[in-house]
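Propose amino acids for all 264 sites.
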């Protein structure tokens, strides 16, 4: 009987903690929107964070995007070759990359690289009481640390997503060119003949939402870190896992909405 009560108590505590975290995260997001449009605006710090997020992720995004384009083309070729439809490869690859792969691959890379970095950096500042020290020195730490990073991820991830899409299409072109000797102009003409403005707008919108999510989760976990160095590690790990999970959920929802708009 006592074991049953103990399990019930632990389960109840877990449910309470979950809803408390959801409420606190929602308050964190609302505070961001309240603070983001009030002066002072730390443009220098926003630009610095954009550089940290964008330029330092560029090499990994380039490599991943290029390899994604090549591998996806190589995997798709045998299936189309069975029907004598390898000429459809540029259209197929362009649809896959523009509609889904570019924004999703970029966001997953940024979740792992940027989300963990933000969570660990802010978490270490939290456990060493540097954030409290900023409050004493009349600096709003939320505005200077969280708002700037969230804006930077929201701005930078869509740019990286467009770049990743271009690099992936370039990798796909090299693979197609090696087999069919297709010119780059005809490749992109065939590829973009199947792409609508809705696809491009949806991809950019998804990347904006993904970037905002990565920034919010990383900052929220960092600001709420506790327990010394182990707490910093937990904050970084939770930032990565939760941001990736939410990116997949948002991907499903946005794809459903865009398909509804496209067909109705």
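Proposal:
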């Amino acid at each position: 009987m006592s074991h049953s009560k103990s399990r019930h108590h632990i389960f109840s505590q877990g449910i309470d903690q979950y809803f408390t975290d959801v409420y606190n995260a929602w308050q964190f997001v609302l505070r961001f929107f309240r603070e983001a449009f009030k002066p002072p605006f730390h443009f220098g710090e926003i630009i610095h964070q954009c550089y940290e997020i964008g330029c330092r992720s560029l090499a990994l995004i380039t490599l991943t995007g290029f390899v994604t384009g090549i591998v996806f083309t190589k995997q798709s070729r045998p299936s189309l070759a069975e029907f004598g439809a390898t000429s459809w490869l540029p259209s197929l690859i362009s649809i896959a990359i523009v509609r889904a792969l570019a924004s999703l691959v970029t966001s997953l890379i940024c979740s792992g690289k940027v989300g963990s970095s933000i969570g660990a950096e802010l978490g270490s500042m939290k456990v060493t009481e540097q954030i409290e020290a900023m409050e004493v020195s009349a600096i709003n730490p939320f505005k200077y640390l969280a708002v700037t990073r969230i804006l930077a991820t929201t701005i930078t991830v869509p740019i990286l997503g467009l770049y990743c899409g271009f690099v992936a299409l370039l990798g796909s072109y090299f693979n197609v060119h090696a087999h069919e000797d297709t010119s780059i102009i005809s490749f992109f003409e065939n590829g973009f003949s199947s792409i609508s403005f809705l696809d491009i707008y949806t991809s950019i919108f998804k990347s904006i939402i993904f970037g905002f999510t990565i920034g919010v989760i990383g900052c929220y976990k960092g600001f709420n870190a506790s327990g010394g160095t182990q707490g910093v590690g937990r904050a970084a790990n939770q930032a990565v896992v939760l941001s990736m999970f939410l990116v997949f959920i948002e991907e499903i929802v946005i794809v459903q909405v865009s398909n509804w708009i496209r067909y109705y």
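Residues 141-180 form the longest helix (40 residues). Residues 1-38 form one domain.
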